[in-house]
Each structure stands twice: as structure tokens, then as C-alpha cells.
Amino acid sequence: MYDYLVVGAGAVGMATAYHIKRLSPSSRVLVVDQHPGVGMGDTAKSAAAFRTIFTSWINRTLAKTSVGFYREVQNSGYDLGMRHVGYLFLVPRENEATMRAVAHELIKAGTPVELYDKMDIPIRTRVSEDEEAREMGLPDVSVALLVKEAGIIDPERLVRYYYEKYVEAGGEVMFGVKVESVKFSPKRPIGIPGEPFPWQDARVAGVETSAGPLEAKNVIFATGAWTEMLMDAAGFGLPIKPRKRQVFVVKASGELGDLLRAGLADREYAPMIILPRGIYVRPEPVEESFWIGVSDRRRYGFEENPEPEEELWRFGIYPVLTKYVPLFEGKTPHNAWAGHYDENVVDYQPIVDRLAEGLYVAAGTSGSGIMKADAVGRIAASLALGLEKAELHGGMVVDSAVLKKTRCFEEERLVI
Amino acid sequence: MYDYLVVGAGAVGMATAYHIKRLSPSSRVLVVDQHPGVGMGDTAKSAAAFRTIFTSWINRTLAKTSVGFYREVQNSGYDLGMRHVGYLFLVPRENEATMRAVAHELIKAGTPVELYDKMDIPIRTRVSEDEEAREMGLPDVSVALLVKEAGIIDPERLVRYYYEKYVEAGGEVMFGVKVESVKFSPKRPIGIPGEPFPWQDARVAGVETSAGPLEAKNVIFATGAWTEMLMDAAGFGLPIKPRKRQVFVVKASGELGDLLRAGLADREYAPMIILPRGIYVRPEPVEESFWIGVSDRRRYGFEENPEPEEELWRFGIYPVLTKYVPLFEGKTPHNAWAGHYDENVVDYQPIVDRLAEGLYVAAGTSGSGIMKADAVGRIAASLALGLEKAELHGGMVVDSAVLKKTRCFEEERLVI
């Protein structure tokens, strides 16, 4: 009988398990994952960038404290592959006024950002002189915002860090075991098969897995894109849906190599570049390449073995990418992969909630799970431990229920 | 080319279409439904009760104005089968304090409710003297609340009323046609197959159906339990999920007949009775019977042809029902049916929102669609017509975006 069973050994699950063990060393904690090791689900398929600068309080709080923790780990000598290359938002005219307002707010608050007027934008785009681009309806870039407290990280090292610390502290793991459902038992059994019935008070008893049942007093689902199907089947409705995501890798050779090494604001490498129409270009210095993706309005749904689609590159990304950054002309990806976002379809923020006695969920990170994993893990651990408050890295304290599904957050204005 | 195409001829869809036509008589409006007539989906499977008394503002506003409209229709001579039999909440001790607080608030506000102390509760229950009930963990009833502005209605007549008025006003309908998907077209076509691509500005062009494409400038999905699968496929995430619901019908013969005719507060028939553990007993005077259901924590999911499950009656309802109302002992349902709720899994309120240019949704009524259909229809019509405000029955004005998916409502405290 485990005290806490965490389903999912991705960034959120491992951070949660680590923080449970840290806060309650004598508890018996188990992490179960269907993969043969940690971080092999969608954590490994992340675009793995981070920033701490957002307009909404909740984004800022989760990302800033998490990234602060990662930085401390990195500075302590455990290399997480963090590089503070920055984010460069290339902003079309239609959004210029909004972006200027956001930038001025940030600058006033002392945030390290830089606003470039059209003529000073450090990445040359040719949309304004290109007739085809105009026919395609692609907007000219009229201003750019460089966000400096931002960069890239290696999610596999991050999750491995949590895993090592967790195991050191006596945490247990079970890999290659798939959790199939959550089990409840009646608080007052009456001895009739089929219990618990709808009218019986019940609490979590454990989970059914591909390797048989596991008993636990508390189960925390940190199951990302798998969350919807597991919780639907258990009768707990969450506004979290899986959505396919794809990343295409282009070698940074020739002039693209120069672009890769053209860091801004004294950084060694190019920033994460956010183009209009949801396309992003992420530097990958170790592999001398760029990772490219797009936030497309794709159907929701889960694919058992998601594969990257050449068509998305060809029709969804390439035509726009090459208009804004002509250096990519003629390039084709030499690698690509696909995974899932676990998207909160209401406010795109994670949900950490208690769904029933002994049943918790920590999911819905909506594409920013890596940069928020530490805070989400601390909140999930505190909630599962029955603490009213969660202490985030750096000492900031939030309500453990801050991410419950019925919360209300302001809308983020600085989005990809 | 239609100006407005409403998908779904249930209560919400027909109310929406009727109000569009009422507010914009010259618009060409079409209602499409897969069934051979109006109200043949989940509208016909509703428990079809109404109340106007809630603790939350939004529940009160939607139900009170809608029921006010139905009452006016009924009083004008168009029989909607409304009977103001009331709702009787039988409250277990664990909820007594909350219910007393709610009741005192309501009484202070001049709401027609009546609170019965244990000895005066007009329905005799025997839980307190029953050892088996105690072993089952069933709580004794310690107080009861009678809500008078409440009762039952015939949803098929209601939807027929809207249908007749809509057709009279020149509205068009297409039955037996299943809408399969929503179609978009690029605002600036470039003439390449596969348009619109993710980076193109697009707007609704119409729908694909089992009978071929239909063109429309605006499409409103009033698709209840079908909403999730249709909108998931279109890439629009909503916190709305289908959940099976079942109603069991028991003949009101012998002493049950006396119970049926034992109206409270001068009403002719028994009230809708809400037992502990989510079981409700609805009088059906026309058929001399009771409709019985339970809000069970059932898995989410859609069934193509949902059937009632004898097991739910036998293990989920009967053991509890007979403990609270022993008159049901030995009774078996002579009829039953199953349908779906379209449940908003966050706040159990309807969502009326604009998802893209020309694309609207009006769904998620979560089991109170009949009693809120008029207000939801007025809000959906106003939003689709581009009006900032919606005028509800009785002259109350709300923002047309009041039910957008990112709203924040207080939690309802008076629930089944």
C-alpha cells in the first residue's frame, strides 16, 4: 500500500513525486509510467523553450519560480542545458499597438525586454517587398520585442534531475507499466459485487495496470495528453484535451549557421524567434540546427503513435517561414517528431485539483509544461499532502487550490 | 447561401432559430437536424422539470426569464404541459446547515419557498429507524425545502411551439440530414488545393452534411451531446462532454397513486422530489406515473444508441429509493429511456460563444437545457446577429458574450 502513487514520469509527474518526497520523507511514494524510463512521453517531444515574462500573474508566477529553480540547479553544477538566448517576437502591424502597450508595461516594471522599431529589427524579413507574400495575406513585421529572461533547456536532463533526487530520497519507480484505470472502494462496504454503487461514499483505492492492481491511498494523475481518456472513463470531467504537436529540424549550415550564432544582447546564439501566424524557430546549438513548429488550429484528439506530417511542413510552415526568413529557402527537415499538447481548452493553464477523496490531477500544461513543471509539481505535492498552501521556489506562497479547475484567470496577452 | 444555419432542432436550436428570425425577419435562416422532426434528440429524453430558484445569478437569470416566457405562452392558450408542482429537496443532516442558510437567504429575498423541520416533512421516510439503511451509510433526512416556482413541462410541446412560430415567420428546416463537419474558406484564396492552410485567415463557409454541402455565412451549433465530437474535429476546444442519462418510469398505482395526487401548498400533484444521493422522483400526472433518475458519477462518452441499464435501476436507484420512500418497494419500471446530458464539466452552465468568424456554439446546458432554452436561444441569436446585448424575456438585458467559455460564475449551492 503506497501513500502516494504518481501516474506519469514526465516533467510534471517527476517534479510532483520529488516534492512529495521532499515535503514528506517518510511517505511511501511510487511513480508508474508506461515507458521504459523517465521523460519518454511528451516531455521528450517538447520544443523545450522557457520564458519568465508574461502579462498574466499566473503564467509569471509558475514560470518565474520554476525557471529560478532550474537556474539554481544549473548553477550548482548539474547541467540542464539552459541557455538564455531570449525570445524575439516579430509582430505584425495589426498587433503593433497591443505589443507596444505590453512592452511599455514590462519596461515600466523593470523587466529586461527590448523593443525594436521596424528599421532596427535584428532579423531581416522581406514580406513588405514581396508580392506573393501580400497575395498570401501575410502581414509585414512592424515591430519586434526581445524578451531576455528566456531561452532553451534540455527537458530530458531536467526530468532526470528530479528522478535522481527522488530515488536518492527513497522514492520508488515502476517503468513499463501502463495505468489503465483508477479504482475506488466504498467507505462502508456492504459486501455486494459491483461496489461502490453511485450512492455509496467512496474513496480511491489504487489503480489497475497492465501488470495488475496497485494499492494506494492517494493517486495523482500527471498524465498529460492521456488525462482526458483516463478521467473521462472515471467520470471526472476536465477541460483538458490532447492535440498533436510537431517539430521539424533543419540543419543550420551555411548562412543558417551564421544566423544560429547571431545572438542578441550579448547572447551566444540566436533567440527563439516567434514569427507571425504562430510559427516559431528555436535554436539548437548542440546539434547545430533549428527546431521549427507552428501552433495550428488542428483537430483535438489522441494518436497512439503520432507521426510528423510532411504536408504540415510543406504547406503549413515552409511557405510562411521562407517569406519571413528567406534563409530557409530550399531547406528541408532532416529530422522531425510528433507528440501531443495536453491543452486546457478554456484558459491554457495547468489544472491541479482534487477530484475525489484520494484522487488528484496535475495536467493541462498546454505547451508550457517544461517551464512550469517545478511550480506545478510543488502545488500538486502540497495539495495531495493536504496542505493549504504551497511554497514555490524562492519562498513565494500560493494557495494549494490556486490551479483548481474552477479558478478564474485573466487572459494572457503575450502569446505565441 | 443561408445567412444563418442552425445545427440541431432541439429546444436550444429551435429557440435560437426562432429568435434569430424574430430579431432579423429578412435573414434567410435554416435549421438542420439528423432526426425526422423537431425535438427528437435529447430534448425528448429530458426529465423536463423546471425551477426558477437558484442561488447563482446566472442560473436564476436564465431559468427565470425562460420559464416566464413559457408561462406566457401557456397562458396565451398554447398548452406546454406546465404544472407548477414545486420541487421538494429532502436534505440529509450533513447538508442541513447549508440548506438552512440558503433557505433563509431566499426567504429574506421574498422567494416563495417553505422550510420544513424534521417532524413536519410532508414525505415520510424511514431511514432513521432502518438498520439496513444505516449499514448502507444512507443519511437521515433532517430538513426539507419546498421551492414553489418550479414544476414540470412537456419539452416536445415547447420545441413544437418554437418550430411553428419559426416556420410561420418564414424560417426553413431540413430534417433527416446529418451535419458532419463545418467548412472554412480562406478570405484571400490562393487557388491551391487544401486551403485554408493554418496561416490563412479563414471564415465559415457552411457545413458538410449527409446530403452534401450547405453554404451559410454563419453557422450555430446547438448540438448538445454531439458538440464535443464536432468541435474537436474542427479544432475548437470546449469544456463540454456527453454523459449518459437514464429515466425509469414506474406506474403510480395503489398507494403510489395517492402519493402522486398528494400535492403540496395547494398544488394538484406531488412535487418533484429530490432525495439524498442525487435521486429524483418526478410526477407525471398525464401518464399516472413517476419518472425516476439519478445523477450518478458515470463515465463521460457518447453512445450512438443509448439504452437504459436495468442494473442502474436495480443497484443504483432501487435500494436507496425504497429506503427513503418505502412506497416504491416491489415496484419495477414499466418503461425507461436513455439519452445524454451535454455537460459543461467546469461550471455546469451553458456556453454560447463565437469560436471563429461565422462560427458559433450554443450548448453545454448540463441537464437544465429545457428550463433555460429561451434565454440561451436569445443570447445565441443576439451573438450571431452581432448585437452587443441580448434582451431576455421580461426586458432584462445581458451582454451577448455573458456565456462565453472564459466567463467566471459563482458556484451554485442549490443542486440536485
Question: What does the model show?
Answer:
Chains A, B: Keywords: Oxidoreductase. Chains A, B: GO terms for molecular function: oxidoreductase activity. Chains A, B: InterPro entries: FAD-dep_OxRdtase, FAD/NAD-bd_sf. Chains A, B: It holds the Pfam family DAO. Chains A, B: This is FAD dependent oxidoreductase. Two copies of one chain form a homodimer. With 416 residues, chain A is α+β, with helices and mostly antiparallel strands. The first copy, chain A, folds into two domains: 189 residues, FAD/NAD(P)-binding domain (3-Layer(bba) Sandwich), CATH 3.50.50; 161 residues, D-Amino Acid Oxidase, Chain A, domain 2 (2-Layer Sandwich), CATH 3.30.9. In chain A, 26% of the residues lie in helices and 29% in strands. Chain A is built from nine helices and 20 strands. In chain A, the strands form four sheets. In chain A, strands 1, 2, 8, 9, 10, 11, 17 and 18 form an eight-stranded mixed sheet that branches. An eight-stranded mixed sheet of chain A has the order 5-6-4-13-14-15-12-16. In chain A, α1 runs parallel beside α5 and α1 runs parallel beside α9. The longest helix of chain A is centred in the first third of the chain and has 19 residues. Chain A is elongated. The relative contact order of chain A is 0.20. The model of chain A has no long low-confidence stretch (mean pLDDT 95).
Concise synopsis of the structure shown:
Two copies of one chain form a homodimer. The first copy, chain A, has nine helices and 20 strands.
